[in-house]
Design brief:
about 400 residues, FAD/NAD(P)-binding domain, D-Amino Acid Oxidase, Chain A, domain 2, 2 domains, nine-stranded mixed sheet, about 30% helix, globular, DhpH_subs-bd, FAD-bd, oxidoreductase, FAD-dependent monooxygenase
Length: about 400
Protein backbone atom coordinates (compact mmCIF):
# COMPACT_ATOMS: atom_id res chain seq x y z
CA UNK A 1 0.00 0.00 0.00
CA UNK A 2 1.48 3.34 -1.06
CA UNK A 3 0.44 6.97 -0.93
CA UNK A 4 -1.45 8.92 1.70
CA UNK A 5 -0.69 11.69 4.17
CA UNK A 6 0.88 10.78 7.52
CA UNK A 7 1.51 12.91 10.61
CA UNK A 8 3.85 11.72 13.36
CA UNK A 9 3.25 13.52 16.64
CA UNK A 10 6.55 13.51 18.52
CA UNK A 11 9.99 13.66 16.96
CA UNK A 12 12.21 11.70 19.34
CA UNK A 13 13.39 8.11 18.89
CA UNK A 14 10.02 6.46 18.22
CA UNK A 15 8.82 9.38 16.13
CA UNK A 16 11.86 9.50 13.87
CA UNK A 17 11.75 5.73 13.34
CA UNK A 18 8.03 5.77 12.49
CA UNK A 19 8.49 8.72 10.12
CA UNK A 20 11.25 6.81 8.34
CA UNK A 21 8.90 3.84 7.95
CA UNK A 22 6.17 6.03 6.43
CA UNK A 23 8.62 7.54 3.97
CA UNK A 24 10.07 4.14 3.00
CA UNK A 25 6.60 2.72 2.45
CA UNK A 26 5.73 5.44 -0.04
CA UNK A 27 3.52 7.91 1.82
CA UNK A 28 2.94 11.00 -0.30
CA UNK A 29 3.50 13.33 2.63
CA UNK A 30 5.10 12.77 6.04
CA UNK A 31 5.04 15.51 8.70
CA UNK A 32 6.70 15.25 12.13
CA UNK A 33 5.33 17.53 14.84
CA UNK A 34 7.81 17.91 17.73
CA UNK A 35 6.86 20.06 20.72
CA UNK A 36 10.44 20.98 21.72
CA UNK A 37 11.78 24.17 20.13
CA UNK A 38 15.40 23.01 19.85
CA UNK A 39 17.31 19.94 18.81
CA UNK A 40 16.98 16.95 21.13
CA UNK A 41 20.59 15.83 20.88
CA UNK A 42 21.48 17.64 24.12
CA UNK A 43 19.58 15.06 26.18
CA UNK A 44 22.50 13.33 27.86
CA UNK A 45 20.97 10.35 29.62
CA UNK A 46 22.24 6.88 28.86
CA UNK A 47 20.45 3.82 27.59
CA UNK A 48 21.41 0.25 26.75
CA UNK A 49 20.50 -1.99 23.83
CA UNK A 50 20.89 -5.77 23.83
CA UNK A 51 23.34 -7.01 21.18
CA UNK A 52 20.67 -9.25 19.63
CA UNK A 53 18.21 -6.36 19.42
CA UNK A 54 20.86 -4.19 17.73
CA UNK A 55 21.54 -6.88 15.12
CA UNK A 56 17.83 -7.12 14.30
CA UNK A 57 17.35 -3.37 14.13
CA UNK A 58 20.44 -2.94 11.98
CA UNK A 59 19.18 -5.56 9.53
CA UNK A 60 15.80 -3.79 9.45
CA UNK A 61 17.39 -0.45 8.58
CA UNK A 62 16.78 1.46 11.81
CA UNK A 63 20.34 1.49 13.21
CA UNK A 64 23.87 1.05 11.95
CA UNK A 65 27.24 0.48 13.56
CA UNK A 66 28.31 4.10 12.94
CA UNK A 67 26.09 5.26 15.79
CA UNK A 68 28.48 5.91 18.73
CA UNK A 69 28.11 3.14 21.33
CA UNK A 70 30.07 1.63 24.19
CA UNK A 71 30.49 -2.11 24.57
CA UNK A 72 29.37 -3.75 27.84
CA UNK A 73 30.01 -7.42 28.64
CA UNK A 74 29.41 -7.92 32.38
CA UNK A 75 27.09 -6.55 35.05
CA UNK A 76 28.55 -6.69 38.56
CA UNK A 77 26.01 -6.84 41.40
CA UNK A 78 27.38 -5.41 44.68
CA UNK A 79 26.17 -4.73 48.19
CA UNK A 80 27.70 -2.46 50.81
CA UNK A 81 30.10 -4.17 53.18
CA UNK A 82 32.22 -2.30 55.69
CA UNK A 83 35.34 -4.26 54.75
CA UNK A 84 35.09 -3.60 51.00
CA UNK A 85 35.36 0.00 49.67
CA UNK A 86 33.75 -1.07 46.38
CA UNK A 87 31.22 -3.37 48.04
CA UNK A 88 30.87 -7.12 48.40
CA UNK A 89 30.32 -8.91 45.06
CA UNK A 90 27.05 -10.81 44.74
CA UNK A 91 27.07 -11.85 41.09
CA UNK A 92 29.08 -11.30 37.92
CA UNK A 93 26.29 -11.42 35.34
CA UNK A 94 26.83 -11.81 31.57
CA UNK A 95 25.58 -8.56 30.03
CA UNK A 96 25.69 -8.55 26.18
CA UNK A 97 24.66 -4.93 25.67
CA UNK A 98 25.93 -1.72 24.13
CA UNK A 99 25.28 1.61 25.81
CA UNK A 100 24.29 4.80 24.02
CA UNK A 101 24.03 8.51 24.66
CA UNK A 102 20.32 9.27 24.10
CA UNK A 103 21.04 12.47 22.21
CA UNK A 104 23.55 10.85 19.87
CA UNK A 105 21.18 7.99 19.10
CA UNK A 106 18.38 10.45 18.37
CA UNK A 107 20.68 12.51 16.17
CA UNK A 108 21.56 9.44 14.08
CA UNK A 109 17.89 8.58 13.61
CA UNK A 110 17.04 12.19 12.77
CA UNK A 111 19.80 12.37 10.17
CA UNK A 112 18.55 9.19 8.51
CA UNK A 113 15.19 10.77 7.72
CA UNK A 114 14.89 11.50 4.00
CA UNK A 115 14.58 15.09 2.89
CA UNK A 116 10.96 14.48 1.90
CA UNK A 117 9.98 14.29 5.60
CA UNK A 118 8.87 17.66 6.98
CA UNK A 119 10.19 17.92 10.55
CA UNK A 120 8.60 20.79 12.49
CA UNK A 121 10.11 21.84 15.81
CA UNK A 122 8.21 23.98 18.34
CA UNK A 123 4.95 22.42 17.11
CA UNK A 124 3.09 21.12 20.18
CA UNK A 125 -0.17 19.40 19.32
CA UNK A 126 -3.14 21.09 20.96
CA UNK A 127 -5.94 18.82 19.73
CA UNK A 128 -6.52 15.56 17.88
CA UNK A 129 -9.73 14.35 16.25
CA UNK A 130 -10.46 10.89 14.97
CA UNK A 131 -12.84 9.72 12.26
CA UNK A 132 -13.24 6.31 10.62
CA UNK A 133 -11.56 7.44 7.40
CA UNK A 134 -9.26 10.28 8.50
CA UNK A 135 -7.69 12.04 11.48
CA UNK A 136 -6.79 15.65 12.11
CA UNK A 137 -4.38 17.51 14.36
CA UNK A 138 -4.03 21.13 15.39
CA UNK A 139 -0.55 22.18 16.42
CA UNK A 140 0.82 25.35 17.91
CA UNK A 141 2.20 26.36 14.53
CA UNK A 142 -1.12 25.96 12.67
CA UNK A 143 -4.24 28.15 12.92
CA UNK A 144 -6.58 25.22 12.23
CA UNK A 145 -6.73 21.46 11.86
CA UNK A 146 -4.73 19.56 9.27
CA UNK A 147 -6.21 16.30 7.99
CA UNK A 148 -4.24 13.10 7.45
CA UNK A 149 -4.89 9.53 6.43
CA UNK A 150 -2.92 8.33 9.47
CA UNK A 151 -1.74 10.05 12.65
CA UNK A 152 0.96 8.25 14.65
CA UNK A 153 1.20 9.25 18.31
CA UNK A 154 4.84 8.99 19.36
CA UNK A 155 4.58 11.89 21.79
CA UNK A 156 5.76 10.26 24.99
CA UNK A 157 4.23 9.33 28.29
CA UNK A 158 2.04 12.48 28.33
CA UNK A 159 0.70 11.78 24.87
CA UNK A 160 -2.02 14.01 23.42
CA UNK A 161 -2.79 11.36 20.80
CA UNK A 162 -3.27 8.71 23.51
CA UNK A 163 -6.00 10.84 25.06
CA UNK A 164 -7.88 10.64 21.76
CA UNK A 165 -7.35 6.87 21.47
CA UNK A 166 -7.92 5.99 25.15
CA UNK A 167 -9.62 8.90 26.93
CA UNK A 168 -8.66 9.19 30.59
CA UNK A 169 -5.89 6.59 30.42
CA UNK A 170 -2.49 7.71 31.68
CA UNK A 171 0.69 6.45 33.32
CA UNK A 172 0.66 5.20 36.90
CA UNK A 173 3.25 6.50 39.36
CA UNK A 174 5.18 3.60 40.86
CA UNK A 175 5.88 5.33 44.19
CA UNK A 176 9.62 5.93 43.64
CA UNK A 177 11.91 7.97 41.43
CA UNK A 178 15.29 7.73 39.80
CA UNK A 179 17.97 10.31 40.28
CA UNK A 180 20.04 10.49 37.08
CA UNK A 181 23.41 11.97 36.40
CA UNK A 182 26.39 11.93 34.08
CA UNK A 183 29.91 13.25 34.16
CA UNK A 184 33.07 12.93 32.07
CA UNK A 185 34.71 9.60 32.87
CA UNK A 186 38.10 11.34 33.00
CA UNK A 187 36.98 12.96 36.27
CA UNK A 188 37.36 9.57 37.94
CA UNK A 189 41.13 9.90 37.61
CA UNK A 190 43.05 6.96 39.06
CA UNK A 191 39.86 5.54 40.55
CA UNK A 192 38.77 4.53 37.03
CA UNK A 193 41.39 1.75 37.00
CA UNK A 194 39.36 -0.15 39.61
CA UNK A 195 36.34 -0.30 37.31
CA UNK A 196 36.70 -2.06 33.95
CA UNK A 197 35.21 0.03 31.10
CA UNK A 198 33.17 -2.91 29.79
CA UNK A 199 31.47 -3.52 33.15
CA UNK A 200 28.11 -2.16 34.26
CA UNK A 201 27.57 -2.05 38.02
CA UNK A 202 24.44 -2.47 40.14
CA UNK A 203 24.72 -1.53 43.82
CA UNK A 204 21.85 -2.98 45.87
CA UNK A 205 20.45 -1.57 49.10
CA UNK A 206 17.24 -1.78 51.08
CA UNK A 207 14.61 0.25 49.27
CA UNK A 208 16.56 0.88 46.09
CA UNK A 209 19.51 0.31 43.83
CA UNK A 210 22.05 2.27 41.80
CA UNK A 211 23.14 1.35 38.26
CA UNK A 212 26.32 2.77 36.72
CA UNK A 213 27.89 2.33 33.29
CA UNK A 214 29.84 4.30 30.71
CA UNK A 215 28.28 5.82 27.58
CA UNK A 216 29.77 7.62 24.57
CA UNK A 217 30.25 11.32 25.09
CA UNK A 218 29.35 13.98 22.54
CA UNK A 219 32.09 15.30 20.29
CA UNK A 220 35.65 14.32 21.10
CA UNK A 221 35.40 14.71 24.86
CA UNK A 222 35.65 11.02 25.67
CA UNK A 223 33.18 8.71 27.40
CA UNK A 224 30.73 9.73 30.11
CA UNK A 225 29.85 7.95 33.32
CA UNK A 226 26.07 7.50 33.44
CA UNK A 227 24.32 6.56 36.68
CA UNK A 228 20.72 5.98 37.80
CA UNK A 229 19.71 5.65 41.46
CA UNK A 230 16.24 4.32 42.34
CA UNK A 231 14.57 5.03 45.69
CA UNK A 232 11.43 6.61 47.15
CA UNK A 233 11.64 10.41 47.38
CA UNK A 234 11.15 12.27 50.67
CA UNK A 235 7.55 13.08 51.55
CA UNK A 236 6.27 16.19 49.82
CA UNK A 237 9.24 16.54 47.47
CA UNK A 238 7.07 15.92 44.39
CA UNK A 239 3.70 17.64 43.84
CA UNK A 240 1.12 14.85 44.30
CA UNK A 241 -1.09 16.07 41.46
CA UNK A 242 1.68 16.30 38.84
CA UNK A 243 4.69 14.06 39.42
CA UNK A 244 6.71 15.45 36.53
CA UNK A 245 10.43 15.09 36.04
CA UNK A 246 12.77 17.58 37.67
CA UNK A 247 14.97 18.68 34.77
CA UNK A 248 18.74 18.61 34.71
CA UNK A 249 20.20 21.38 36.82
CA UNK A 250 17.06 21.89 38.92
CA UNK A 251 17.55 19.24 41.63
CA UNK A 252 17.77 21.22 44.87
CA UNK A 253 16.34 21.23 48.38
CA UNK A 254 14.90 17.98 49.77
CA UNK A 255 15.61 15.97 46.61
CA UNK A 256 19.29 16.94 46.60
CA UNK A 257 19.59 16.37 50.36
CA UNK A 258 17.90 12.96 50.09
CA UNK A 259 20.31 11.85 47.39
CA UNK A 260 23.26 12.83 49.57
CA UNK A 261 21.76 10.84 52.45
CA UNK A 262 21.26 7.75 50.26
CA UNK A 263 24.88 7.90 49.08
CA UNK A 264 26.24 8.21 52.60
CA UNK A 265 23.98 5.58 54.16
CA UNK A 266 23.66 2.89 51.51
CA UNK A 267 26.43 2.96 48.90
CA UNK A 268 29.94 1.61 49.29
CA UNK A 269 32.42 4.48 49.70
CA UNK A 270 33.94 4.10 46.23
CA UNK A 271 30.61 4.46 44.41
CA UNK A 272 29.34 7.21 46.71
CA UNK A 273 32.44 9.25 45.86
CA UNK A 274 32.01 8.58 42.14
CA UNK A 275 28.41 9.85 42.12
CA UNK A 276 29.31 12.82 44.33
CA UNK A 277 31.60 14.02 41.52
CA UNK A 278 28.52 14.77 39.40
CA UNK A 279 27.91 18.52 39.19
CA UNK A 280 24.36 19.69 40.10
CA UNK A 281 23.83 20.98 36.56
CA UNK A 282 24.09 17.38 35.28
CA UNK A 283 21.68 15.81 37.80
CA UNK A 284 17.95 15.25 37.26
CA UNK A 285 15.07 13.35 38.87
CA UNK A 286 12.57 11.22 36.96
CA UNK A 287 9.50 9.77 38.69
CA UNK A 288 9.03 6.14 37.65
CA UNK A 289 5.75 5.42 35.84
CA UNK A 290 4.28 2.56 33.87
CA UNK A 291 1.38 2.07 31.50
CA UNK A 292 0.02 -0.49 29.05
CA UNK A 293 -2.84 0.99 27.03
CA UNK A 294 -6.00 -1.08 26.55
CA UNK A 295 -5.74 -0.46 22.80
CA UNK A 296 -3.14 1.07 20.46
CA UNK A 297 -5.39 2.21 17.63
CA UNK A 298 -8.69 4.02 17.08
CA UNK A 299 -9.97 5.05 13.68
CA UNK A 300 -6.91 6.43 11.90
CA UNK A 301 -4.87 6.98 15.09
CA UNK A 302 -1.97 4.73 16.13
CA UNK A 303 0.22 4.82 19.26
CA UNK A 304 3.93 3.99 19.41
CA UNK A 305 6.79 4.27 21.90
CA UNK A 306 6.01 5.68 25.34
CA UNK A 307 2.64 6.92 24.12
CA UNK A 308 1.57 3.27 23.99
CA UNK A 309 3.78 1.54 26.55
CA UNK A 310 5.54 3.16 29.49
CA UNK A 311 7.93 0.57 30.88
CA UNK A 312 9.93 1.00 34.08
CA UNK A 313 13.63 1.49 33.26
CA UNK A 314 14.70 -1.74 35.01
CA UNK A 315 13.87 -3.71 31.84
CA UNK A 316 16.69 -2.09 29.84
CA UNK A 317 14.34 -2.19 26.87
CA UNK A 318 13.02 1.33 26.28
CA UNK A 319 14.83 2.12 23.02
CA UNK A 320 14.36 -1.42 21.72
CA UNK A 321 10.63 -1.25 22.43
CA UNK A 322 10.24 2.06 20.58
CA UNK A 323 12.16 0.81 17.56
CA UNK A 324 10.32 -2.51 17.61
CA UNK A 325 7.06 -0.55 17.41
CA UNK A 326 8.39 1.06 14.24
CA UNK A 327 9.44 -2.35 12.92
CA UNK A 328 5.96 -3.75 13.55
CA UNK A 329 4.47 -0.72 11.81
CA UNK A 330 6.60 -1.41 8.76
CA UNK A 331 5.70 -5.10 8.68
CA UNK A 332 2.00 -4.27 8.97
CA UNK A 333 2.32 -1.62 6.27
CA UNK A 334 3.95 -4.05 3.81
CA UNK A 335 1.21 -6.63 4.38
CA UNK A 336 -1.76 -4.25 4.27
CA UNK A 337 -3.96 -3.34 1.35
CA UNK A 338 -5.79 -0.59 3.22
CA UNK A 339 -5.40 1.72 6.21
CA UNK A 340 -7.72 -0.37 8.43
CA UNK A 341 -5.66 -3.47 7.64
CA UNK A 342 -2.46 -1.62 8.54
CA UNK A 343 -3.84 -0.50 11.89
CA UNK A 344 -5.25 -3.95 12.67
CA UNK A 345 -1.99 -5.70 11.81
CA UNK A 346 0.06 -3.33 13.92
CA UNK A 347 -2.20 -3.71 16.96
CA UNK A 348 -2.14 -7.49 16.69
CA UNK A 349 1.65 -7.49 16.65
CA UNK A 350 2.29 -5.12 19.55
CA UNK A 351 -0.60 -5.20 22.05
CA UNK A 352 0.48 -8.28 24.01
CA UNK A 353 4.19 -7.44 23.75
CA UNK A 354 3.60 -4.11 25.47
CA UNK A 355 1.62 -5.67 28.30
CA UNK A 356 4.32 -8.31 28.87
CA UNK A 357 7.05 -5.68 29.13
CA UNK A 358 5.05 -3.58 31.59
CA UNK A 359 4.40 -6.68 33.72
CA UNK A 360 8.13 -7.50 33.71
CA UNK A 361 8.99 -3.94 34.73
CA UNK A 362 6.59 -4.16 37.65
CA UNK A 363 8.12 -7.46 38.79
CA UNK A 364 11.62 -6.03 38.57
CA UNK A 365 10.60 -2.83 40.33
CA UNK A 366 9.04 -4.78 43.17
CA UNK A 367 12.01 -7.11 43.47
CA UNK A 368 14.72 -4.46 43.23
CA UNK A 369 13.14 -1.45 44.95
CA UNK A 370 9.73 -1.86 46.57
CA UNK A 371 10.16 -5.33 48.11
CA UNK A 372 13.88 -5.94 47.78
CA UNK A 373 15.43 -8.81 49.74
CA UNK A 374 17.79 -8.40 52.65
CA UNK A 375 20.91 -8.06 50.52
CA UNK A 376 23.22 -8.61 53.49
CA UNK A 377 22.09 -12.25 53.56
CA UNK A 378 22.38 -12.89 49.80
CA UNK A 379 25.12 -14.86 48.10
CA UNK A 380 25.87 -15.58 44.45
CA UNK A 381 23.60 -18.59 44.04
CA UNK A 382 20.76 -16.83 45.84
CA UNK A 383 21.11 -13.74 43.66
CA UNK A 384 21.01 -15.79 40.45
CA UNK A 385 17.91 -17.66 41.60
CA UNK A 386 16.26 -14.39 42.65
CA UNK A 387 16.98 -12.86 39.24
CA UNK A 388 15.72 -15.81 37.22
CA UNK A 389 12.47 -15.80 39.17
CA UNK A 390 11.83 -12.21 38.07
CA UNK A 391 12.70 -12.43 34.36
CA UNK A 392 11.20 -15.84 33.48
CA UNK A 393 9.54 -16.39 31.08
CA UNK A 394 9.73 -12.97 29.41
CA UNK A 395 13.49 -12.61 29.18
CA UNK A 396 15.45 -9.39 29.49
CA UNK A 397 16.39 -6.55 27.18
CA UNK A 398 13.22 -6.47 25.08
CA UNK A 399 11.47 -8.74 22.61
CA UNK A 400 12.84 -9.92 19.31
CA UNK A 401 11.84 -7.79 16.34
CA UNK A 402 8.72 -9.15 14.66
CA UNK A 403 9.05 -9.73 10.92
Amino acid sequence: MRGGRVAVVGGSIAGCACAAVAARQGADRVVVLERSPGRLRDRGVGLCLHDARFAELEAAGFLDARVPRHRLTRRRWLVRDGAEPMGRPLWDQPFPFHSYHWGLLWQALRERLPGTVEYRSAAPVAAVTVEPDRAAVRSGSSPGFEEYDLVIGADGYRSAVREAVCPGVGPRYAGYVCWRGSLPAERLGGAARRWAPEHAVTVCFTGGQCVLYRIPGPGSGGPLLNWVLYAAPPDGALPPEDRASVPTGSVTGPLADHLAMLLERHLPPYWARVIALTPPELTSVQPVHDLAVPRRTAGRLLLAGDAATVVRPHNTSGAATALNDAGALEAAWRAAGSWPELLSGYAAARDSAGRELVALGRRLGAAQVEQAPDWSTMDGAGTVAWWEQQVAPTGFGGHALAR
